[in-house]
Protein 1
Amino acid sequence: MTSNKLPQSVRIREVGPRDGFQNEPEVIATSDKIRLINLLAQTGLRRIEVTSFVRPDVIPQLSDATEVLAGIDRPEGVSYSVLIPNRRGLENALAQRDLFDETNFFLSASETHNMKNVNRTVEESIAGLEETIPVAVEAGLRCEGVISTSFGCPYEGDVPVENVLALALRLARAGCVEVGFGDTTGMANPVQVRRFFDEARERFASEGLGEVELTAHFHDTRGQGLANVLAALEEGIESFESSFGELGGCPVPAGATGNIASEDLVSMLGEMGVDTGIDLAKLIEASAEAQELLGRPLGSHVLKAGPVDWHR
Ligand code: ZN
């Protein structure tokens, strides 16, 4: 149970170039994507989700996956991941195998959200991934599985923790060394998060899968994202996903916007003495570039207010 002792350091995966750019109404030019990813790769971020191999007719915003991967810098120590929807997506990605390091497989824990998102039942999705993930493992790729609507579904309401953990364990047994839990439409609260990760860690340990990295992916749709981060930290979670500028969200339902902002996360962690290895000033520069490019104010708080440090 909760120790209230925070970890010394955490790992952060930047998902803005995928989760964020995917949800912009306009298609961002490939050269602008490359420029922004290169800025992010200079901040100290070691994990960046850069694009997705989804069908271009479904998500035209990411139809330049290959060009983006071929164009970005590859600084030492930065691990690039791509989002894979299914077997065909993996095969397209594997044609570019040398250009990325990790794959991220996703499904939703709720039937309705999964159906609206990928037009499959949850069982069809997980069964497909159980065949696909071992192929990625075989290709030497590190695999992460991400479960959307882990903390609630906008169509179905509560999502039983048992259902989420059953999927998580199946992803891990299929070869995922990391499982991410997405609060896709910002329904989680800190008390729920604490209970969830307490149970998740216990289940993974009791199944002999205690080594699997459990990652929290919160959205700030209702302003509870960072409170949920603290709750997860207090349950020993040391891996988070966030998006620079607070870009991103979810294609369904409309309006479910806002991953927690990477600079808000890095700022809070730094102030609490938790090391992220990320240079906050450089991260803010990357977000400011994105804000200028998109031509609208982004949701990030620290981008507006500046780091606490500037006021000392
Ligand atoms: Zn997200």
Protein 2
Amino acid sequence: MKMLIINGPNLNLLGRREPGIYGNNTMESCLSALRERYPDVEVEYFQSNSEGDIITRLHDAGFGGEYRGIVLNAGAYTHTSLAIADAIAAIETPVIEVHISNVHAREAVRHKSLISPVCRGVIAGFGLASYRLGVEALMD
Ligand code: DQA
């Protein structure tokens, strides 16, 4: 079973970026733990700071049944990008929206997600475990 994790802008800095909010762990350690825990799940990873690259990756993974699902942390594009929301609506592969922080406990601008209505479900606030929970949701 193959799954794709996509991280959006600034998430390449995990481990160094605002550790009080996002923690000290890197995405690499999160991915290693996930692959160790679920050896039968092929976890692919893609990160980009560019909206268009994220959309293209969604298109490429979105048809043909290659992936069981996509776990997407769109970062700040969550709150701004109608284009990413349209891409999620356009593809067939289910997308789970995830956030490391509890966006609803933060500034009001982070309470609104343009992508939630077109995602299969939303997971927020569990630190890097949010990615694992997203993968587990797709396994079920
Ligand atoms: C985030 C929350 C967003 O509001 C923020 O812009 C991010 C990360 C999270 O994972 O908590 O970049 O998606």
